[in-house]
């Protein structure tokens, strides 16, 4: 067998990408690679269209050389597996399709074209789609120190892969990471495992897609102590760090006794010898002004705040700019640090001396750390980097502690939270509540709670300006503000509701203006803003003349860090039991056997007047599920089934919103079903309100079960029933409306 080290630069890549890689030749290549000790190669640079193979020609050579000399020395913790000849205690969950160990290729996989009919049946669940799911469970792990899980995987053709953490005795797994992106090569990903005193298992859920040849495979799982951002560059895979390919200048692996280009060999920082490795970038191939080389950390998977330290060397102070940035999922950069801006006395003209650097990192959402060097010309010198490490304490005690943006949340249920009113304008926002009724809408939080109203018709004045001022938010951050508003009557101008930022310099910047025409429904607004100085958000409703003004209502304000686009999936619909119905039915399925029809997935009002909702609960302009009463006979029912849920010793909390409006409304029930028996968790009969009402049910069930939503048609066609925003989580519920203990009896307390 030819060993990859004797290949010319780029050769392996061509062999790999000229033809569309079939699974067999991928595995074959992979086998070669592993036998030569080069298994790391494919993981370093995920393929990007148009960049392979020619441009990458030079790079892999060095990386392969590097890989050949590397000695893995870092401690691997239990739960690590190379899948060489066994699965190291990883087992397939018998309720799902099996993962198969391919000994020749040294990986485990779930395939779409499996002939295991039994498995297919099992994986298909009760739904109409024949989805194949394989669940791989790690042995029970006890790791009370922070650790990092690095996974080498591949999704072929189509499919998805999800990694979760299953705590002992908890009914819901915590999602760590997921991907739906197929690739032609193996890819490395990392996820932080937070320190915990509870034993847990890692759960790996693979779902190959429908297309032929679809497969989800895992080549290697490595769990090592420390943070995923840590790297001494002496590890295989470079800890998931990768060079962002540029035609002329790139980061290379240096050290390992190999002389690279025309440069002398440096001592690395980790071992202070010529065997250790580091990353470096050289201006020698720079062709144009401002050529940029970037090495990027893996994406963080948990909120991180603390001190990022690293060692660097830099020659030619004026020929290059060395900076550290964070880069979020939208590709937006934020500068953290610049070489030369720190203590000048630490700066050295000589390459060969490592300089320590520290920078505070505040990453409440997923980011990559990017080390970037920009050269002005070929004589821009070199920059080297080694020993990146993270610590959860800030570098300096002067650093302001991480701010909790939820201080600006308010549902107005018990007051104004941290919001204040500017009464100098003579008018104010009033807190009001509307009991469930069939004429006017309630609040957004529960349907029976409180919200703010900008104006009352009782006001003797001819017009008004109402200001609602939020708490002070620190500067230099990006925020996502969400709130719900509802307009009534005739608001002739955009001034009905605007939001602006009030900065300390007393400058005002409008960040949102309402432009929605819909009336009488709660509509969600997402506003992303960035502020350099500390600032407050201010909600303003302006009415110049009462003839032009209707009502303006406000509820459920929330604030998070980061772009709203990034936090849109704060509650991933992949969480078992959670569904806002915006993109379909999530894990829920229609009963096809024991009911009269199906729930309808709908947006906007239902076809029959004086029954059903006018909008959904999540967005106001989004989707919900409803029972259309017209084609059904009185007493007929429809059923929606949750996926199979694991039981737990503790309480579980089921929260959902329901809409029961119409003179002939029948009944909505929620059942818990297990082993053929079923218990009633919640029930409501007859017309309730024109608003979406919140239901919360706390229950306990220690065996596998399903939740069933069952709507029954009433006496007339005016009996539409709708549901939205189902959340199922570990309990107890904060304010349960109903408590049930299904483990012991089926009665509702
Ligand atoms: Ca090193
Ligand atoms: Ca409210
Ligand atoms: Ca049905
Ligand atoms: Ca919805």
TrEMBL record:
Q: Which PANTHER family does this UniProt record tie to the protein?
A: APICAL ENDOSOMAL GLYCOPROTEIN PRECURSOR, MAM DOMAIN-CONTAINING PROTEIN
User: Which keywords accompany this UniProt record?
Assistant: Repeat
Q: Which domain of life is it from?
A: Eukaryota
Q: Name one GO cellular component term.
A: membrane
TM segment ranges: none
Under Pfam families, the record lists: MAM
Under the heading CDD domains, the entry gives: MAM
Q: What is this protein called?
A: MAM domain-containing protein 2-like
Tell me which residues make up the MAM domain: 79-230, 229-397, 408-566, 577-735
Q: Do you know which InterPro entries this protein is assigned to? A: ConA-like_dom_sf, MAM_dom, MAM_domain-containing
Source organism of the structure: Mastacembelus armatus
Q: Which PROSITE patterns match?
A: MAM_1, MAM_2
């Amino acid at each position: 067998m030819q060993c990859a080290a004797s290949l010319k630069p780029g050769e392996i890549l061509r062999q790999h990408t000229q033809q569309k890689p079939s699974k067999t030749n991928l595995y074959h290549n992979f086998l070669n690679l592993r036998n030569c000790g080069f298994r790391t190669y494919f993981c370093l640079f995920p393929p990007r269209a148009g960049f392979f193979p020619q441009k990458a020609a030079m790079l892999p050579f060095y990386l392969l050389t590097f890989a050949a000399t590397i000695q893995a020395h870092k401690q691997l913790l239990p739960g690590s597996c190379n899948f060489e000849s066994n699965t190291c205690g990883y087992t397939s969950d018998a309720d799902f399709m099996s993962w198969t160990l391919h000994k020749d290729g040294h990986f485990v996989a779930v395939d779409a074209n499996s002939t295991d009919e039994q498995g297919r049946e099992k994986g298909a669940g009760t739904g109409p789609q024949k989805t194949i799911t394989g669940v791989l469970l790690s042995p029970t792990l006890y790791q009370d120190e922070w650790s990092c899980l690095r996974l080498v995987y591949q999704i072929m053709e189509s499919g998805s892969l999800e990694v979760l953490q299953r705590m002992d005795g908890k009914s819901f797994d915590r999602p760590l990471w997921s991907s739906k992106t197929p690739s032609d090569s193996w890819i490395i990903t990392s996820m932080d495992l937070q320190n915990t005193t509870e034993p847990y298992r890692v759960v790996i859920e693979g779902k190959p897609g429908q297309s032929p040849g679809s497969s989800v495979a895992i080549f290697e799982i490595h769990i090592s102590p420390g943070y995923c951002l840590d790297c001494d560059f002496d590890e295989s895979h470079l800890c998931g760090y990768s060079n962002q390919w540029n035609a002329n200048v790139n980061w290379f692996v240096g050290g390992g006794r190999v002389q690279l280009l025309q440069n002398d060999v440096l001592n690395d920082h980790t071992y202070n010898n010529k065997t250790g490795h580091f990353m470096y970038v050289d201006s020698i191939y720079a062709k144009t002004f401002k050529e940029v080389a970037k090495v990027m950390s893996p994406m963080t998977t948990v909120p991180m705040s603390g001190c990022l330290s690293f060692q660097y060397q830099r020659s030619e102070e004026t020929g290059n700019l060395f900076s550290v940035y964070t880069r979020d999922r939208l590709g937006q950069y934020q500068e953290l640090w610049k070489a030369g801006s720190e203590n000048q006395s630490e700066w050295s003209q000589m390459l060969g001396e490592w300089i320590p650097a520290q920078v505070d990192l505040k990453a409440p959402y997923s980011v990559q750390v990017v080390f970037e060097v920009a050269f002005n010309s070929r004589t821009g010198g070199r920059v080297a980097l080694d020993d990146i490490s993270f610590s959860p304490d800030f570098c300096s005690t002067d650093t302001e502690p991480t701010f909790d943006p939820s201080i600006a949340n308010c549902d107005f249920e018990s007051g104004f939270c941290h919001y204040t009113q500017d009464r100098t304008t003579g008018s104010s926002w009033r807190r009001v509540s509307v009991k469930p009724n069939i004429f006017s809408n309630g609040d957004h939080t529960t349907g029976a709670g409180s919200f703010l109203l900008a104006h009352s018709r009782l006001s003797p004045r001819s017009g008004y300006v109402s200001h609602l001022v939020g708490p002070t938010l620190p500067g230099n951050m990006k925020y996502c503000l969400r709130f719900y508003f509802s307009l009534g009557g005739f608001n002739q101008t955009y001034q009905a509701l605007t939001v602006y930022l009030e900065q300390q310099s007393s400058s005002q910047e409008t960040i949102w203006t309402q432009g929605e025409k819909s009336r009488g429904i709660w509509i969600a607004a997402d506003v992303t803003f960035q502020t350099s100085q500390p600032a407050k958000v201010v909600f303003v409703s302006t009415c110049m003349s009462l003839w032009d003004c209707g009502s303006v209502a406000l509820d459920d304000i929330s604030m998070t860090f980061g772009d709203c686009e990034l936090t849109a999936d704060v509650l991933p619909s992949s969480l078992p039991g959670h569904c806002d119905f915006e993109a379909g039915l999530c894990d829920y399925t229609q009963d096809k056997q024991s009911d009269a029809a199906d729930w309808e997935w709908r947006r906007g009002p239902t076809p029959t007047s004086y029954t059903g909702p006018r909008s959904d609960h999540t967005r106001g302009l989004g989707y919900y599920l409803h029972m259309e009463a017209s084609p059904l006979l009185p007493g007929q029912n429809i059923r929606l089934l949750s996926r199979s849920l694991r039981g737990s010793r503790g309480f579980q909390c089921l929260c959902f919103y329901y809409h029961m409006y119409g003179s002939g409304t029948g009944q909505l029930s929620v059942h818990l079903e297990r082993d053929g028996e079923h218990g009633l968790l919640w029930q409501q009969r007859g017309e309730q309100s024109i608003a979406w009402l919140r239901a919360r049910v706390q229950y306990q069930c220690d065996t596998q079960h399903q939740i069933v939503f069952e709507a029954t048609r009433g006496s007339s066609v005016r009996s539409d029933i709708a549901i939205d925003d189902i959340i199922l989580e570990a309990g107890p519920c904060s304010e349960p409306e109903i408590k049930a203990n299904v483990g012991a009896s089926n009665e509702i307390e």
